[in-house]
Amino acid sequence: MLAAKDRDNEAYRDQSIPLARAVCGVVFSPSFPLKQFPTWQYQRGGFPVRQDEIPAATLIKPMEQWAWEETQQPDLPIILIGHSAGAQFLDRVAAYAPANEVEIILMNPATYVEPETDSPVPYGFNGWPENTQQQSIKRYLAEHLTILLGSDDVETTLEAGRIAQAMGQGRNRLERGQWAYAQAREEAYRLDVPFNWDIDIVPNTGHDGPKMLASPELREAVERVISRVSSQ
Fold it and tell me: Which superkingdom heads the taxonomic lineage of this protein's source (predicted)?
């Protein structure tokens, strides 16, 4: 579970416990302190890469390995869930640094990575190594990823308003999420590649982490993943 920009991982951990109990899961909520992980490392996942800096998104893979060792369950399916800034971080994981998770669930992120080469990293793949650009885009589209949006998350945040790429994706988080899903689906069709994204709306909910975590829609998304993995 990845927290919002206030990095209140302990609160998000505690608010995730009812869901974990309902699906017989285990919650891990890593800490990304603001001092060590400023906005470009957290919300943007550490991309574009700066000299001598390890992108924070690449830390997910060793964290997953640690979780398997900690639980002593090496076959435990891992679902990454993030809200707001944490969801922005996980979208960069999905696009630029995927690991061994079976699903990534993005709740109310302010910006997305677009599966095309016009927008610059960390909003697209312009600037990504040319020899792996198309392969990375196709893999991103094939990632099992769910966009979960609050129906009332329609305010334009000041921070996102300063980012031209964000405003190009829509006026608010609800619009951007719907736009990102539609754009990705269209691109997957154009490239004739698998498309494994889903999208759902949580009714009567704004930019509210606790309500999103307690929503039937999130539980249904998690249960769908568990059912899919169990049948494989």
Answer: Bacteria
- What is the number of other CB atoms lying within 10 angstroms of the CB of residue 51? 4
* Model confidence pLDDT, tens digit, residues 169-208: 888 999 999 999 999 999 999 999 999 999 999 999 999 9
Residue 102, exposed/middle/buried by CB under 10 A (0-12, 13-18, 19+)?
middle
Residue among 155, 122, 121, 125 at smallest CA distance from 138: 125
Six-digit token pair at 139? 């893999």
Q: What's 131's DSSP letter?
A: T
The overall average pLDDT reported for the chain is 93
Using CA atoms, how far residue 59 sits from 64, 69, 169, in Å, is 9, 16, 27
Q: What is the pLDDT of residue 94?
A: 98
Q: How far apart are CA 121 and CA 114, in angstroms?
A: 9
Question: All domains of the chain, ordered by start, with CATH?
Answer: 9-231 (3.40.50.1820)
CB 126 within 8 A of CB 117: yes
Question: CA 78, 84, 86, 90: dihedral to nearest 10 degrees?
Answer: 60
The predicted-structure confidence for 73-110, as pLDDT tens digits, reads as follows 999 999 999 999 999 999 999 999 999 999 999 999 99
Q: For 120, which DSSP code?
A: B
